[in-house]
């Protein structure tokens, strides 16, 4: 949609099935997780709505439009005053940032993903979360560019929280689903670094990492769902020896972990390396912080992969119900996601190439 009304409305409608999927078909503290997700995202949406209304009302009556292409051109020719831009930019950051699980608006995400059924976690972490990043690219950057630059230091502080705080929190997780939830939220910090880079390379990296994270998160949560369904647990201590019992399942888990770490040749690496190079001149300290995030992610993920590969086979894994992936029907979803990670990792131009003219236009003075 290119209409702000439909853009916001469809976002709100998506909260309804999210609440039902987690609340009715989730597990663990599914009711609490569903309500927490809904309340957080509704509050974020209210802030977002105030920002969009403020942006609309700040324009002269003759120039008002709900078509964001018209809005962007109008605001490029007649930009808002500095104070108004900063206020709108902050509101958009909080509104979209809540959906993206930007610290300190992230509390709903790890528990929500851990309690959600695997398909719902795949959909939300892989697709719906990117709605917030897409909104910042389509609304904040082109419509209040000076305001976005002015608050970039705030974004820098918050993304540091995503990378370091959630990175260290992921090291403490002993449940694989919770580990994936924290890891998913953590990587959003690196995407935000690309959004404040002020370079086409940084923005292209952010776009590529959005796609890569969507694929790796979907693969990770799908594997976690299969492991939990077959063994009845997602606790790492109860999954020792899975590599011997279900080598295909462990292989795809390893691919998801390597993609999350940023292994060269996979999509996440392509996005991260572009963000690092594109942000180095303007934000060298934040690039160093993001590099430490890669280290924290590697420690957390490799430890999880190791615990499932080595050591004695646990009773949960020895159960007769635990089988490996068999047949095309079970394997093809994992194979498709893996292939997509490799293709985007080797040829990231497929993702950011068509968007490059738009990204260049975003940075025009």
Would you mind describing this structure in some detail?
With 365 residues, the protein is mostly helical. It has 19 helices and no strands. α5 runs antiparallel to α7, α10 (176-195) packs parallel to α14 (267-279) and α10 runs antiparallel to α15. The two termini are 26 Å apart. 51% of the residues are buried.
Per-chain topology:
Layout lengths: L3 H10 L1 H11 L4 H28 L10 H10 L4 H19 L7 H8 L2 H26 L1 H6 L1 H20 L4 H20 L4 H32 L10 H4 L1 H15 L5 H13 L4 H26 L5 H4 L8 H20 L2 H4 L3 H7 L3
C-alpha geometry? globular
List the domain count as a whole number.
2
* Percentage of residues in strands: under 5%
Which blocks of ≥5 consecutive residues have pLDDT under 50?
none
The overall strand count is 0
* Series of secondary-structure elements, N-terminal to C-terminal: HHHHHHHHHHHHHHHHHHH
Structural class: mainly alpha
How far do the termini sit from each other?
Answer: 26 Å
Percent helix = over 70%
Report on the biggest sheet.
none
Rg of Cα set: 21 Å
Overall average residue pLDDT:
88
How large is the count of helical segments?
19
Brief sketch in words of this structure:
The chain has 365 residues and is mainly alpha-helical. The protein contains 19 helices and no strands. It has two domains: 1-150; 151-365, no CATH class.
Features:
78% helix, mainly alpha, 365 residues, 0% strand
């Amino acid at each position: 949609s290119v209409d702000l009304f439909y853009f916001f409305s469809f976002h709100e409608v998506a909260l309804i099935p999210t609440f039902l999927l987690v609340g009715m078909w989730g597990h663990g503290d599914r009711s609490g997780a569903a309500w927490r997700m809904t309340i957080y995202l509704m509050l974020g949406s209210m802030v977002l709505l105030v920002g969009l209304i403020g942006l609309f009302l700040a324009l002269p009556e003759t120039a008002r439009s709900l078509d964001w292409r018209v809005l962007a051109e109008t605001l490029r020719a007649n930009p808002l005053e500095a104070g108004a831009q900063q206020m709108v930019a902050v509101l958009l950051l909080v509104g979209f940032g809540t959906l993206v699980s930007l610290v300190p608006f992230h509390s709903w995400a790890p528990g929500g993903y851990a309690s959600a059924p695997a398909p719902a976690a795949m959909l939300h972490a892989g697709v719906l979360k990117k709605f917030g990043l897409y909104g910042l690219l389509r609304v904040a950057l082109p419509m209040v560019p000076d305001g976005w630059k002015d608050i970039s230091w705030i974004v820098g502080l918050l993304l540091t929280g995503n990378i370091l705080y959630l990175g260290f929190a992921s090291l403490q997780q002993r449940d694989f689903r919770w580990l994936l939830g924290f890891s998913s939220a953590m990587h959003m910090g690196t995407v935000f670094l690309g959004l404040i880079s002020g370079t086409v390379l940084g923005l292209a990296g952010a776009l590529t990492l959005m796609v890569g994270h969507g694929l790796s998160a979907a693969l990770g949560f799908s594997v976690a769902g299969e492991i939990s369904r077959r063994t009845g647990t997602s606790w790492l201590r109860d999954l020792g020896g899975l590599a011997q019992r279900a080598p295909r399942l462990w292989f795809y888990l390893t691919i998801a972990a390597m993609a999350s770490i940023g292994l060269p040749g996979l999509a996440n690496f392509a996005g991260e390396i572009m963000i690092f190079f594109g942000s180095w001149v303007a934000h060298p300290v934040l690039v160093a912080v993001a590099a430490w995030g890669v280290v924290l992610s590697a420690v957390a993920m490799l430890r999880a992969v190791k615990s499932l590969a080595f050591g004695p086979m646990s009773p949960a894994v020895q159960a007769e119900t635990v089988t490996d992936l068999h047949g095309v029907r079970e394997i093809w979803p994992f194979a498709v996601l893996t292939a997509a990670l490799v293709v985007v990792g080797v040829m990231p131009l497929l993702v950011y190439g068509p968007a490059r003219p738009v990204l260049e236009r975003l940075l025009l003075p």
